[in-house]
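Progress report, Aim 2. The chain analyzed during this reporting quarter is listed below.
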Amino acid sequence: MTSHLETAEHPENLKRVAIDPVSRVEGHGKVTILLDDHNKVHQVRLHIVEFRGFERFIQGRPYWEVPVMVQRLCGICPVSHHLAASKAFDRILGVRTLTPTAEKVRRLMHYGQILQSHALHFFHLCSPDLLFGFDSEPTRRNIVGVAEKYPDTARRGVLLRRFGQEVIRITAGKRIHGTGAIPGGVNKAVTQEERDMLLEDIYQIVGWGRDAVHLVKQLHETNPALYDSFGLFRSNMMSLVGHNGELDLYHGSLRARDDNGAIIFDGVDYQNYGQHIEEEVKSWTYMKFPFIKSLGKEHGWYKVGPLARVQNCDHIATPLAEAERRQFADYAGDMPMHAPLAYHWARMIEMLHAAESIKDLLHDADIMGGELMAYGERQREGVGVIEAPRGTLFHHYRVGEDDLVTMCNLIVSTTSNNQAMNEAVRQVARRYLHGREIAEGLLNHIEVAIRAFDPCLSCATHALGKMPLEIELADAAGLVIHRLVKSADGLLSA
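Predicted structure tokens for the chain:
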């Protein structure tokens, strides 16, 4: 799994192509590509150019403020940070088992988050590439273009996301940066009126979720030469799994497999994640590189998220999603599927599972119960882990006797996918860049590989793909020999 493009000898003598910023992702990043005089790719790197200081400025804050504060990491998946922090502070309070109402309201909130985030990413950010083609006209390759040519698909994407946001509003208090989860439980249950309102639409939502899985599956079956090989690399994978090995996006133990599907570790209590996972720092990016300790830096990197989770679990508890998982596994054959574009297929299976889980929870009277809080014996340290839309999310805190946070460490999902995204970009660049003139469609191939992972670099660009972009190709002496600019309006000029 070690890349031969990780470093370049004498980089000062190589030509440099920069994609800055990467568009239709959340936050700001860039890609640099080093080429020799024959346009052979020597190095490709995804740089994260934003700095995240949450671990430091959370220190000194009262612990009960943190589940609300950390949501400001992200405006798209704030629920994930809200719940991961709440789970960590459950442990600080000595709470190991929530009340049935608190557990199920939190799960309902989380599945609403999975539903809305997966719908947003697939329909708004990625479907334009998949439906129109990577080289299609950029002024058309956006959600507006999808709405014009595929109005039913675009409409369903919007309504799926809106329903997920309504679930969040009801359970967390508002759609973004809610306050529903608190250390030890939740601060409100679901009313019967709220439950009945959601029940009116949930069966349609489940049906649309199943249609979305079939759409992605058809894309793979129609063009396997592209979907099964684009940006292909092999890696380890890691996720939470439930106590019976089922897909569980809210709670469970850590399981990791190698690139052939063999178990590396299983049943690991995530309170002890530091015994199994370590983070490496590199000078050219603000994002760390986690790896599995027992395998070392070179061979221990892994991927997380839908593609890992759907293949790491033994089964899915909801019947429609389980049937789709089995078809996914049959398509992949005897070995795990590693193609980055397969993330979209797995993502839609999870979206269907989230819809089915919401349906089941809406029929559970516990979500309207009255006992919201549990209590235990105060502890100094706690770890909360949840499967965020993008993958396994770690929140680790220590708290002093004065109730102030003394230490915070976060491993966000995109951090775990860092090396995998770099590897995908290298494979695409090596296949599509050699000897070709710079063009917007070619650059979009590289961005498609990054977008497959649904990276959350922070919260930023969802403006129909109209991010300004400037690319320069320089010779060994540093003289710019070709320049291409995409304006904020999407227009290209030399």
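The two ends are 38 Å apart (CA to CA). The first strand starts at residue 15 and ends at 19. These observations will guide the mutagenesis work planned for the next reporting period.
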